[in-house]
Design a protein that fits this description.
Number of helices: 10
Structural class: alpha/beta
Order of helices and strands: HHHEHHEHEHHEHEEEH
Distance between the termini: 132 Å
């Protein structure tokens, strides 16, 4: 219907009122209309709100040990290894040891004072009053870096020929088969003060001829031809203080070479 037809048919006021009612109806319809639905992918749940934000502490990292550096490896390789010491001897080596062969040593054995820190006593044989012949019979091959052969005054007191003593010492050295050899000298004797001097002179000469090391272990405990004060109870055998001094002397000879 055209505008002029409505006006002519119903009159202008009526037409205006009808137009206002029609406009209100259209406005209400627009306000209450349902919004279009967005198409969704099959199987997906509609999202109504934003997903919650979850925070957590960082996972602990595994502890990784530092890699060795060239300097640390060189320092470790430069650390000195313990020297393995075998001892074959008589009274001064044995001392008051409960079981020398079993490496149970007493405090009057100089071996107990020498075997510490960088020196390990790996075994051997010693007995009070032993001759070099008995020592040679008991000696055997052992894994060692040095063998210390302790010759006391027993051979000289029993008039054993020097040639026999030398032969027995050489048997000991061959049996143990260590790369280094140390001969320790005889200790003082109140009963026969000059006998130790003669024995030590012969041992020093033997060591020089064979390329071995001679150690005068009586030097730190001797005064003149006898023991210094406080170093022996009977003038024949070292006490614990003397054994400690002798052991330290042997230690220095082993470590300084």
């Amino acid at each position: 219907m055209k505008l002029n037809d409505g006006v002519e048919k119903y009159g202008f006021p009526v037409f205006i009122a009808a137009a206002i009612v029609a406009g209100a109806v259209m406005w209400t319809a627009l306000e209450n209309r349902t919004p279009p639905v967005e198409p969704q992918t099959a199987g997906a749940a509609p999202m109504t709100t934003a997903p919650p934000v979850v925070t957590s502490a960082p996972l602990p990292q595994a502890s990784v040990p530092p890699r060795p550096t060239a300097s640390s490896t060189a320092a470790a390789s430069a650390m000195p290894q313990a020297v393995r010491m075998v001892v074959i001897g008589g009274s001064s080596a044995n001392g008051n040891s409960p079981d020398f062969i079993g490496k149970s040593l007493g405090n009057t054995s100089w071996v107990s004072h020498a075997a510490k820190d960088r020196i390990t006593f790996v075994g051997g044989w010693a007995d009070s009053g032993a001759t070099t012949e008995r020592m040679a019979a008991a000696a055997k091959s052992m894994p060692a870096d040095v063998v210390v052969v302790g010759v006391d005054l027993t051979d000289a007191e029993r008039d054993v020929p020097a040639s026999s003593t030398t032969a027995n010492v050489e048997k000991i050295v061959r049996a143990v088969n260590a790369p280094r050899v140390i001969l320790t000298g005889a200790l003082p004797s109140a009963a026969e003060p000059t006998l130790a001097t003669q024995t030590n002179s012969a041992l020093q000469k033997l060591a020089s001829q064979r390329g071995w090391t001679f150690v005068d272990v009586g030097a730190p405990v001797r005064s003149g031809d006898g023991y210094a004060r406080g170093m022996s109870a009977d003038g024949e055998n070292p006490n614990a203080a003397a054994a400690a001094a002798i052991g330290e002397t042997v230690r220095k000879a082993i470590l300084n070479q």
